Every structure is written in structure tokens, then in C-alpha cells.
Amino acid sequence: MSTRTGLNWQRVQALAAAERASYVARNPESARLAEEAARNLLFGVPMHWMNDWSTPFPLTVRDASGARFRDADGHEYVDFCLGDTGAMFGHAPQPVARAIARQSARGYTAMLPSEDAGPVAAELSRRFGLPYWQFALSASDANRFVLRWLRAATGRSKVLVFNGCYHGTVDDVFVDLVDGVPTQRDSLLGQVHKLTDHTVVVEFNDLPALEAALAQGDIACVLAEPVMTNIGMVLPQLGYWEAAQQLIKRHGTLLVIDETHTISSGTGGYARAHNMQPDVLVVGKPIGGGVPCAVYGFTEELARRVEHAKRSAPPGHSGVGTTLSANMFAMAAMRANLEEVMTEQAYQHMFALAGQLADGLRAVVASHQLPWCVTQIGARTEFQFSATAPRSGTEAHAAMDGELEQVIHLYLLNRGLLITPFHNMLLVCPETTNADITQLLDAFNDCLTAL
Fold first, then answer.
1. Which cofactor does the UniProt annotation name (predicted)?
2. Where are the domains of the chain?
3. What is the pTM of this model?
């Protein structure tokens, strides 16, 4: 018996074997397509991490709409992963689909502003409270560009991140605390520069550690999710961000809030909902309804500093932006998504369903007397293998169990339910229904019974 998860491992392993066999039997067409793709795709998939799901071979998607998708074998699934937030407002939302169809006949990219650019920036300013905006193709790019801007504006080289953080593929953030020592992640491929020379890492919710790091006076910015989400959700402790923001400002450091996942908190994100005052705000994959794009905004004061840094530099490439940044296609998608999909009404629907889901998960866990907890941030819910909610990246990592996660994920998938891989996160979208929640809770209960 595992004292941490409260489960018998022989039963876990037996169920895993049975679910793998069931998956293979159910999906002959996905198996055929995976074998065919492996002839020309490195690792057999378009991106190597698509092999990290719990499935014996990749599941091939045929089409997706709203809260559902179908695979190549014709099975329909209720999607609680939603592209790990990329499709947080549902697959192919109709207003975005119409805008894309219109724009497809009017051009994709021209390296010039489109008529949608000004309205999109104005809507971003209204929602998030920051007056000046720029665009990128992903949150990874946006965060990279922001770090470059802020290092130029402050004259400082270092960035501070939190242990276990996630900000896409930005080199600077691949540093963890290992026994209290900042350490470059072993999983990072091809890294030739020592990241710890310019990256400082502390635990989330640890104010003394944050203050000690800031006191050195060489940190350009703190780059943070307001709630950690990718190592398992870690909520800020009561009063943490109020105190942290005071410390950051006192030491002349800037605060960058990455809302790519926490946009689940409301129409203006977590920072707006909780009266935070970031200097920069980044939102990535969900902002265009699933079309590749990202946005980042500046305060008035910082915008002036950034402009000064650019105008004071010699002419030439700044290292910021690509030729497809703010392309016409993405701008049209963003405008439609912001104006017609990411509405207050949609969020209220998602909040109610996510609350129902969180309460239901807690009830199922309690009925099986398991030492697990459930956390909710707006439309985002997660169950974790710890009795109390983690307070840091280290605690969240200790609560993870990859083998158990994969068994649960595969069990649900075989019953027409997809949740996010790598951890136990579930999202609801405007098209999710009460019946979908009931189906998920019933299957989750059956899974724990089988375990």
C-alpha cells in the first residue's frame, strides 16, 4: 500500500495493463496512422512531447468542435484538456471561425498593421488595465521578448523565477532549486550557456527568500504566474502577492505576470480580479481562440522606458519580434475571440461548471478516503495526490506520481474523457455541459473503485 496515495500498487499496475490492452483494441486506425507517420516524423509525432501521453501509441484527432473531438476511429470524447488551455474557450468557436474564414480571402500577413490591430489593442487595454501592447506568436516568444525589453530598459541582467515555474520554452526559466541550490534542469537539451549566471530562483510563497534575492539589486524583473499551474496548481498564500509586490517595487525590480494559464480566472485574468499591479502582462495560447498568437502589455511609465531603450540603441535588428508577429490572420482571430467569445457570460458559465466539478471531485475523493486535495482557479480545476494544497513548487513536485496519473488518464480516455497529461488538470469551456461534468465524475469514481 502506498501511504502517500492510499492505493495498492499491484491493483494500479493491473489496471494499467488492462487499460493499455483496451486502448489498443479500440483504436486500430490510430495505430495504423501512427505506424505510417513514424516513417517520416521524428519520434513518430509532429512534436516529441506528443508521445508523453498515457497511450501506447498516439491518438489521432479527426475533428474538434466546442467541448468535444473525434478520433480517427470515430470515437467521440468530452475534452477537459482543451489543448492544455490553447482551446480554453472551446474548439473552433464560431465567431473566430467566421473571422478566419473572412480573413482567409483578404490575406494572411503583410508586415503592416491591419484594421484589427487598433481595436485589439484597445480591448486589451480595457480588459487588463495596461495601456500599451505588442504581439507575438506564442507566450514563449512574448516572454523572451519581454525579458529582452526589460533588461534593456533597466540595465540589469538577471531574472527571478519561482521553483517549478512554467513559461514556455524561455531558456532563462529552466532553473530549479535542488536541495536549496539553483540548478539548471537536466532535461534541457543543447544548452551551452550557464543559466544560473543570470537566473535567480526561489520558492513561491517564500517572502524572506524573495526579499534576500531582490536585495542584491541586480534583478531586472520577476517573471511569474500569479498561481503556479504546470507543476500542479500552487495558490498564493493569503497576503503573499500584496507583500511581494511591495518588495519588488522597493528594490527597483519590475513584475511580469504571465496569465497564459490563469486567464481562466476571469475576463481580465487573475491579476485584474485580485487587484494586482504588474508592470508587464503576458497572455499566450488562448487569446486567439487557438490560433497561434500572444500579447504583452506595458504600463505607461515602462512603455516610455522601453521606447527610450530602443531609440537609444544603434539601428539594426533588436532581437524582438518575427515577420509573422501580429499577422493579419492572428489579429482577426484575436479580435473575434476577445469581442465575442471571452465574454462575462461565458466566464460565469465556466465558473459554475468548474465549481460543480471541483465539489464533485472532492466528494469522490472523500468517499474513497484518499489523502488527495482539489484546487480550483476559475475555469481550471485540479486534483493532487496530497492531503493539503501544496504551498511551493517543491511540495507540488513531491505530490506528483507519474505512473498513477497515467493510469487515471488512460482509464478516463478509454471512456471518452480527456484530461491534461503530465498532471491532473481539467478545464471547462463555454460549450461544456452539466451532463459532461456528471460523466466525468462517474468515470472518475469508477476508476478509483477499480483501483
1. pyridoxal 5'-phosphate
2. 9-79+343-450, 94-341
3. 0.96
